[in-house]
Amino acid sequence: MTTGFRTVDEYIEAQPDAAQDALRRVREAIRAAVPLAQETISYKIPAYTLNGERMLFFAGWKKFYSLYPASLELVAAFKDELAAYEVSKSTLRFPLNVPVPVRLIGRIAVFRAQEVSERLKMKPRRR
Questions:
Q1: In what helix (H) or strand (E) does residue 92 lie, and over which residues does it extend?
Q2: Which of 33, 46, 73, 77 is the most buried (most CB within 10 A)?
Q3: pTM higher than 0.85 for the full model?
Q4: Is residue 51 part of a domain?
């Protein structure tokens, strides 16, 4: 598989057919939820940044797709909704054989944007 992706479109098109539709829906959910986030490729997967800070990544696999990072606070906030999915360390895994939880992913993106914004407020400003 190609790994020198320049765009998210290239990344999605290189994934197995079974994953492409789900990844497009994930992308749309993130973009709709946090329209100010900038889309890029980082660590060879789609990534979203907010004010220069990494906010959210997604990746496709043979049987699932993942969102990263999932902080302890995020997992706790969405505990009930995430119970049906695999949560491991800072990764959320969603199976490809079930409908994409678009609203949940949008809410996760907003939560991550808030976490990033809060972290930026805490950073000392350079002169």
A1: strand 91-95
A2: 46
A3: yes
A4: yes
The candidate with the shortest Cα–Cα distance to 55, out of 44, 70, 65, 43, is 70
The answer to whether position 2 is within a domain reads no
Which tokens belong to 109? Answer: 């993106």
- Strand-by-strand arrangement of the 64-68 sheet: 38-42, 45-50, 53-60, 64-68, 91-95, 86-88
- Is residue 61 pLDDT above 80, yes or no? yes
Q: Which residues of 78-102 are buried (b: 16+ CB within 10 A; e: fewer)?
A: beeebeebeeeeeebbbebeeebbe
Tell me how many domains the chain contains: 1
CATH assignment of the domain containing 103: 3.90.1150.200
